[in-house]
Amino acid sequence: MKVTDRIGQSSSTLLSFEVLPPLKGRSVQSIYEVLDPLMAFKPAFVNVTYHRSEYMYKKRSEGIFEKVYTRKRPGTVGICAAIQFKYKVDAVAHLICGGFTREDTEDALVDLWFLGIENVLLLRGDAARNERHFVAEPGGHPFALDLVKQVVNMNRGQYLEEEHQGGKTDFNIGVAGYPEKHFESPNLKADLKVLKDKVDAGAHYIVTQMFFDNQKFFAFEKSCREAGITVPIIPGLKPITVASQVNMIPRVFHVDIPEALSDAVEKAKNPAEVEKIGAAWCIEQSRELKAAGVPCLHYYTMGKAEVMQNILGEVF
């Protein structure tokens, strides 16, 4: 079932999870170990992230440097299929611009549709590790908006090969929103315009970047509605689990950590206390958002099943 259909049919706040593909060489069992204890909470859907290939230059014997690609995690197609088959829950495949040509994207979408996976979350993705700025693959998309347009075209039965008469797909399209704006946008107004362009192009719902101050989400939601964005907006939450995340998360994800939270973590006496503080903060965030009537709470699990069990047991 489509994400937006599940939201439309529910009179209460749903919940969903995001999981990471395992490192190369590990089996899907590592995904099951995270999801098995969480399925008791009956998530509406499970997102599976995508991690682009990375490259490095290796010096050959003749002195020439060769560009070599390496991929640390598998893609989303097989994992989404495994999750849907095992748990009978809808899987949402992340698709990114980075590292994909338009043909690669079409191939992935064809495979997803064939396997009965009808929900996708479309993202530009980050720059490659050794690049200062995002660079699109030759023949690929520079922006998530272009990715949305390609999926919408396939939903209309329009493929890259004009003479191809493929059937219409019917993907439910999610896109990312940033309550504290995307770090590359000059201001929130400009960032909202980018988001509205994606919705106007055919995106069906929005999932936000993680945040730790609910007032920033409520202000973002209000700004979206004032800008004419009417699709469901799903808040994304992540609990602090280790003290180093207080400095790492703002640096990597470009979000603020409230002073009260960072001060409490700094005063924690041991790792267990840090985890308890982070869980309590996430519980309070969740309760307030749920009371406000958000359509779904989306949790970035990061493989922390036990922490998520404790949080969800207090919220749902």
Describe this structure in words.
The chain is built from eleven helices and ten strands. With 316 residues, the protein is α/β, with parallel strands linked by helices. The chain is globular and about 60 Å long. 41% of the residues lie in helices and 18% in strands. It has helices at 3-9, 29-35, 76-87, 102-114, 144-155, 188-201, 214-226, 245-253, 259-267, 271-291, 305-315, and strands at residues 14-19, 45-48, 54-59, 65-70, 90-96, 119-123, 172-177, 205-210, 233-237, 296-300. It has one domain: TIM Barrel (Alpha-Beta Barrel). The chain has an eight-stranded parallel β-barrel, surrounded by seven helices. Strands 3-4 form a two-stranded antiparallel ribbon. Helix 7 (214-226) links the parallel strand 8 (205-210) and strand 9 (233-237). The protein starts with a helix and ends with a helix.
Q: How many domains in all?
A: 1
Rounded mean pLDDT is: 91
What string gives the helices and strands in order? HEHEEEHEHEHEHEHEHHHEH
Range of helix content: 40-55%
**DSSP, total strands:** 10
What is the oligomeric state here? single chain
**Beta-strand residue percentage:** 15-25%
Structural class: alpha/beta
CATH class: Alpha Beta
> How far apart, in Å, are the first and last alpha carbons?
22 Å
Number of helices: 11
Radius of gyration: 20 Å
CATH topology-level name? TIM Barrel
- pLDDT under 50 segments (min length 5)? none
